[in-house]
């Protein structure tokens, strides 16, 4: 009798699971979505994107599929953000810098030397500041899912090692089309040249510009070692990478489908960040073996550069808003 009761209980539990599963399946439609981003598939961001696609497929029982277009196949970051706003593209992965034209508060991620390490960056992008910024995208026909990591940005150039702020002066440096970056490098005496990413390699190769700044992964997969001699480990900014969906698509999703996308993004971001940080050390060794000269900046010189850039930080703190800046500072302080 006891065995029968146990068996009956097991059947009841199994029936509940099957009913739950069938209910979930009923709330997930067959979809094929267009997902585009700017970097190469081999980059840690591309690997994170692949993990996201895999997880969405698994959690939707294969019903939600994605056609993935890496390496600016669908256009620059600015173009693909616009296409996603219009619902022509379903999902975009993008640096946060181009988003400042839509939501001015995203400029907080461009503040020079805001983060000292990855732990501080994670606390801000995964905390109240990050959630506030993702939510603000809904006002612009977009739906924010989560943040991957592009990484800490360093300066490369073809002229000289940068060991102090004065070494930046006179360099023609490509920056993203973003006012904080432009003002920051101008404050150091550089000729800041905003330029879409697909044009950068050719401009460096021809000598139209001398320098650019990006995380190690971008430097490596785009083979900038072929047109740049020096990497200076400035770590002057940390660059998150936003995973964003068209609001048109988001509004069409069931609650179960929304949960699939958000959960998949949050799982994929953990994989992607770990992969990115493990790759950095390998990339540095590889770039050295290919002839790039890599130098560190002393803490004293970093402090001097940050002091030079304080007026830029003050200017954009007013734009971003004192409350958001305080939230970011509180999240950073909580990691100490």
TrEMBL record:
| The keyword Signal is assigned to this record | yes
Q: Which Gene3D superfamilies match?
A: Bacterial extracellular solute-binding protein, family 7
Q: Name one Pfam family in it.
A: DctP
The record lists the lineage as: Bacteria, Pseudomonadati, Pseudomonadota, Alphaproteobacteria, Hyphomicrobiales
The record, for NCBIfam families, names: dctP, TRAP_S1
Sorted alphabetically, the keyword list is: Signal
- Signal as UniProt keyword: yes
Q: Which domain of life is it from?
A: Bacteria
Q: What is this protein called?
A: TRAP transporter substrate-binding protein
Q: Which residues form the signal peptide?
A: 1-25
CDD domains recorded for this chain?
PBP2_TRAP_YiaO_like (cd13679)
* Originating species: Flaviflagellibacter deserti
């Amino acid at each position: 009798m006891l065995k029968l009761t146990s068996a009956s209980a097991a059947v009841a539990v199994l029936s509940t699971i099957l009913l739950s599963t069938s209910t979930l399946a009923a709330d997930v439609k067959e979809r094929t979505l267009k997902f585009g981003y700017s970097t190469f598939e081999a980059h840690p961001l591309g690997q994170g994107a692949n993990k996201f696609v895999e997880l969405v497929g698994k959690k939707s029982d294969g019903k939600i599929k994605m056609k993935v277009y890496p390496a600016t196949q669908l256009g620059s970051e600015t173009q693909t953000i616009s296409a996603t706003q219009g619902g022509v593209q379903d999902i975009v992965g993008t640096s946060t810098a181009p988003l400042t034209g839509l939501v001015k508060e995203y400029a907080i991620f461009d503040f020079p030397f805001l983060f000292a390490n990855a732990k501080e960056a994670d606390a801000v992008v995964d905390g109240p500041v990050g959630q506030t910024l993702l939510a603000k995208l809904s006002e612009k026909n977009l739906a924010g899912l989560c943040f991957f990591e592009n990484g800490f940005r360093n300066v490369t150039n073809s002229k000289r090692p940068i060991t102090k702020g004065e070494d930046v002066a006179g360099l023609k440096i490509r920056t993203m089309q973003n006012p904080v970056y432009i003002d920051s490098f101008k404050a150091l005496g550089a000729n800041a040249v905003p330029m879409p990413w697909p044009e950068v390699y050719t401009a460096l190769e021809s000598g139209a510009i001398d320098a650019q700044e990006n995380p190690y992964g971008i430097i490596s997969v785009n083979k900038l070692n072929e047109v740049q001699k020096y990497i200076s480990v400035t770590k002057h900014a940390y660059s998150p990478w936003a995973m964003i969906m068209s609001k048109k698509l988001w509004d069409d999703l069931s609650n179960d489908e929304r949960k699939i996308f958000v959960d998949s993004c949050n799982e994929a971001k953990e994989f992607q960040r770990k992969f990115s940080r493990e790759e950095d050390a390998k990339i540095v060794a590889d770039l050295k073996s290919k002839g790039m000269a890599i130098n560190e900046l002393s803490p004293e010189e970093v402090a001097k550069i940050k002091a030079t850039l304080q007026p830029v930080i003050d200017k954009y703190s007013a734009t971003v808003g004192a409350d958001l800046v305080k939230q970011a500072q509180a999240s950073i302080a909580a990691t100490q």
